Amino acid sequence: MEVTLLKVTVVVYLLATASFIVYVVLLKEFFARLSPLILLGGFIIHTSALAVHFIQTGYPAIMQFREALSFYTWLMVGIYLLVQLKYRLAVLGCFIGPLAFIMSLAAFAFAAGREEIPPALKTYWLPLHVTLAFLGNAVFALAFGVSLMYLLQEYQLKSKKMPSLYERFPSLETLDRLNYLFLVWGFPLMTLGIITGSMWAGVHWGKYWSWDPRQISSAVTWLLYGTLLQGRIAAGWHGKKAAVLTIVGFAVVLGYFLWGDYLFPSRHGGRFE
Amino acid sequence: MGLNHRTAPVEVREKVAFESSLLADSLKRVCSLPSIQEGVIVSTCNRVEVIVAASDGETAARELKGFLAEQEYPEGHGGLDSHLYTYTADAAVRHLFRVAASLDSMVVGEPQILGQIKDYYFAAHEAGTVGTILHRLFHRSFTVAKRVRTETGIASRAVSVSSVAVDLARRIFDRLDDKTVMLIGAGKMGGLVARHLQGSGVSSLMVTNRTFERAVELAAEFRGNPIRFEDYPRYLTLADLIIGCTSAPEMLLERESVERVLKERKRKAMFFIDLGDRRNFDPRIHELDNAYLYNLDDLEGVARENLKGRKAEVHKAEEIVGEEVTAFLRWLESLDQVPTIIALRQRLEEIRKREMEKSLGTGLKELSERQREALEDMTAAMINKILHAPITHLKRQGRDEDEAVYIEALKKLFDLGEK
Question: Is domain B2-156 annotated with CATH 3.30.70.260?
Fold first, then answer.
């Protein structure tokens, strides 16, 4: 049941992606309205898959890596839909749609791990930590999307070449403001994610801070985003500089999320081996 | 029938053009021509056209030529005939649709032509020279124009320097109504761009000029604030869009000074538009983050590219026109079937009446009033039942190409020839 729902979700995300691409290519207003609706459909199915998991196992679907990836996708799509409600940014969906499709598909590529959960992990610190950290990251994914759009738009204005593909991009000012908005929301969420994580570590590992690679990488990204936010507020950094830093920050987060455990074995992570 | 910017030079067009005060009169004269039932005259600076509905194209064309020959005509441009084009039937429908959709315009996609056609249509409507056919034709042409505008990118790209400037400003700035424009110099182009920006919502404008009196004059004209020329660098931090349009031989703004201004503005974006005869702004300003500098050549370049893009959209638009022409011709043909159906009904009704009278006068003389009525009803119902199938068929057939064949067959079989 859960797996079937997740498979349907992947297909619906693919449909949404296709619809977003049609929108960008043909610039038909109709698709700007349709695409987020398809994505919403996928989100609802995705939600029900997560709900089924919770009802069957009594625990959120975050214990295995594939589950975590899927959960993260779910949060990201959810936040995008909220943003879409307020800002009507169908173009942003052109980044989120494909990302959602690829990540939800990738979740299937990772082998299912052991089903039972070590009793030591079965506290509610963990879901709280994962949810907050992922929420922060999902908001940064959107910040990444608008930053990429900013750079594309900026490149066009600087090179004085104007292909029609980007005609529907929002103005630099709008994109920059959204970057700030996402940063302001993402940073506290990320901070809370790190705090709850270290609370959990305190309870289960006995130490709040143990120089674990995951902890170090979190601290690095936290500092990176923190510097960026502080630079924006105090030093008036914005525009291209902010966009580039946002992209770098997200690349670090995403890269570590996907491959970190292979490169730097950590006690943290999606696998419990 | 008519002439346009491609077939006739402006000297010819302006002479042949219809004066608006005499339009109603001219329309009535067109429709008084024996072969012509309905007429609309369109007379803009790029085209003079007479669009008529007539049952016989050739006669109508001859008479229209005579009509147009009554217009003034400049000497030394060959005969009027050499500039005229004539379209009939589907070609005429296609032509009007293309004109309304701005596919036949000098600047393809320019939006004014539709409004002009609407005006001339309504003028003809007032003059009472529009009937069923032209009514439908023109309303369809408005729809075609709307479809072309919304379904193709033909009108979405800015093709003039000032609209390109506004377009670029919108890419940089979220909204223009809280932005400030600084206009340096009194050049005509600068004023044009400033006006266009005001039209797009900019409310705050500073004007400066080497002679302060001129700045005051310009400021009054644009309802902006005049600033002394020696003071303007101090006001630069307030300006989001800076238009330079002076004929000064030396550069007004260097990269370094703009860099300072940007720092003061906390790096809020600045858009420089250089329309001067010689460079007003240092081209290296464009290298700075959050500063964008476009000069006249750049703006014209974008406009040219956009125009090319418009042309690429033309074939999409032509397809829409093609579809609509077919739809209109189908409707025009269906007009033919209505009289046939009526004639057929009348013919059968005549037969029924005649036969009823005959029978009631002879064999059925003894029938009571009630029985007569019942018989009346029954025969009428029979006719309706018989006609039901062929009429439905004919109406549905309306979309078919051999519809004309059916109508012809009916006319022959029932002897419905025009009386």
Answer: no
